[in-house]
């Protein structure tokens, strides 16, 4: 059973062949229109002019298609690099937000505790806090 890639490749080849044949037909029609403007040409010279015109037109088409293809590849590379850069920025920003949120949520939680009957929080002996320097109290038992 043929794979989807094989089928897609065959369709692309068929499409390319049909496009080339259409372009060749158009080039020949334009060559005939050019030759019709020169009634003094003999039959053999007329056919040669049409053939040469079609060849030049097809060469131009090939050059144009190559240039467009190269530019598509360049743009794909540029957009891929830009996408990777933006994705890294978004991941870093999301990570910074999560870490910042965790840090902020850990700081108040370190200072809360069950209050005794007088409303005072119990002492925390040897407990370190996760707050920014100077933002939280020093660990219990190590201060002045």
Structural class: mainly alpha
How much β-strand is present in the residues? under 5%
**Helical percentage:** over 70%
Shape: elongated
The main β sheet shows up as: none
Uncertain stretches of 5 or more adjacent residues: 125-130
Distance between the termini: 82 Å
Mean pLDDT: 82
The number of E-state strands comes to: 0
Number of helices: 2
Radius of gyration: 38 Å
Run of helices and strands: HH
Describe the structure.
The chain has 144 residues and is mainly α. The chain is built from two helices and no strands. Helix 1 crosses helix 2. 3% of the residues are buried.
What would the keywords be for this entry?
single chain; 144 residues; mainly alpha; 2 helices; 71% helix; 0% strand
Q: Quick gist of this model?
A:
The protein is mainly α and 144 residues long. The chain has helices at residues 4-36, 43-111.
Present the secondary structure layout.
Layout: H1 4-36, H2 43-111
């Amino acid at each position: 059973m043929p794979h989807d890639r094989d089928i897609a490749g065959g369709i692309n080849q068929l499409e390319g062949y049909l496009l080339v044949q259409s372009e060749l037909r158009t080039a020949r029609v334009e060559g005939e229109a050019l030759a019709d403007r020169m009634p003094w040409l003999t039959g053999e010279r007329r056919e040669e002019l049409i053939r040469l015109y079609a060849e030049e037109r097809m060469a131009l088409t090939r050059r144009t298609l190559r240039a467009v293809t190269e530019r598509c590849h360049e743009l794909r590379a540029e957009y891929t690099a830009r996408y990777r850069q933006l994705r890294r920025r978004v991941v870093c920003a999301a990570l910074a937000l999560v870490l910042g949120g965790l840090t902020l949520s850990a700081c108040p939680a370190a200072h809360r505790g069950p209050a005794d009957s007088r409303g005072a929080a119990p002492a925390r002996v040897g407990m370190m806090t996760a707050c920014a320097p100077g933002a939280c109290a020093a660990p219990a038992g190590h201060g002045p």
